[in-house]
């Protein structure tokens, strides 16, 4: 899904922006999905099951109790820039809002017996009804779902919310830039309701009497039911109340919780939405009275708190732990240290217009993989393993090729040789990194040392931890971004398909194509794969992954990712969400 937080100077990331967004299943060996992280790296599931018949209320979690406050610490993670559901494409924002505050056409539920994620209805009564060639989808909107003011959600409001996703000027970093604007009918002629204000768009229609929303496609789009799980495929209020950017500061809730307060990069507080109708929701619960999310938390202080066992830690959870305390967490927390897999890959993204294949290959050998992982708090072999491809383990069709014949590792002397042979000795790297956190700064030191020892020169541009690097990398007018020739991206699949990895990262002009890779032949093959029979598409994506990387090497896969979540002893049902690579917020409670 989507990108994940750009931590440690493009080194690693903790908890999917990616977006945003979805991955594989639970990937745990035990039935609860709460296995601690002593079993090595876990591949995500290749597929996500579907249950179009599931209806509300969500099955009760065994032993769950109501009441209490759950506090979530997010080390080194500045959180979402705003809360507009149309703009949500980060793992952090999506995992919180999709679970607790904002509903969409479809959603994911966790099977508490298997730990696997299941695509189920949300505001729609089923998973949508496509025509024979998947160029038109109709969703029937349930009649018992409401806004936080108690008013029923209408089909017109859902259609309006979906139409907003087409406006790439209003939402330049939103997921609609990749899916709505590519797949929806005549999206190349319609720029969205704010940019093309007053212009009529025929690709999305609604029937209020039948409570249906119909979406027409420009090409076959069999994955529309998966795309329906994004908040951008949900309702927005009619009129000026939903105008961006103001709406993103305090959007109206449709889920079990509503926003009490939001301070970007600091704190989000959610309280119960008394207007939410449990019987209308097949997957969410409303056990806790309040949620408090602490963004950009200090990693060392968070570790100390979660290991203290004090009253505050008992009702808290942390979305990341540091490598130095992994053994102690594993020993002290047991099943409350949850290892979660998801289909995620971290990348270095050298500027395709400013670098050559030789420079990019030298950069791959100059990256001090394990040193960076350890410095940034990751656990080599558990939360991070070496990557060899764009598509991650567990994704159907993934190719196990090696760009240079064997797994690329940190080899500074080899990097020097490559630079010398290319006549690029002393090539200067310009990169941005986050300051204000011990782990991100320690990781940056390892990166700079690795590059320098490999024959590169380095100029680094510090950015406060409260500012996501994505706001720089994706802004062509940013003064710092104009100087850069090395960026990064951490990406999780939006659903289990190469179609949510390769185009989002490498299609010409894609928002998160931070390498600025552009080849007409690659773009054409991406479009061609979408017209193939469904059963042929996974292998075709894997073949294109290998072709692009071996021919152009535009981005450098640095790690496949798992995450570790630490839960306090009074947090009930400590589990992960395999669709988002995040804690399973929907099913948590405070044990009374």
From TrEMBL:
InterPro entries: Peptide/Ni-bd, SBP_5, SBP_5_dom. Residues 119-510 form the Solute-binding protein family domain. PANTHER family: ABC TRANSPORTER SUBSTRATE-BINDING PROTEIN (PTHR30290:SF83), PERIPLASMIC BINDING COMPONENT OF ABC TRANSPORTER (PTHR30290). Residues 22-84 are annotated as: Disordered. Coiled coil: none annotated. The lineage of its organism: Bacteria, Bacillati, Actinomycetota, Actinomycetes, Propionibacteriales. Pfam families: SBP_bac_5. This is ABC transporter substrate-binding protein. It comes from Nocardioides pini. Keywords: Signal. Residues 40-54 have a biased composition (Basic and acidic residues). Residues 1-20 form the signal peptide.
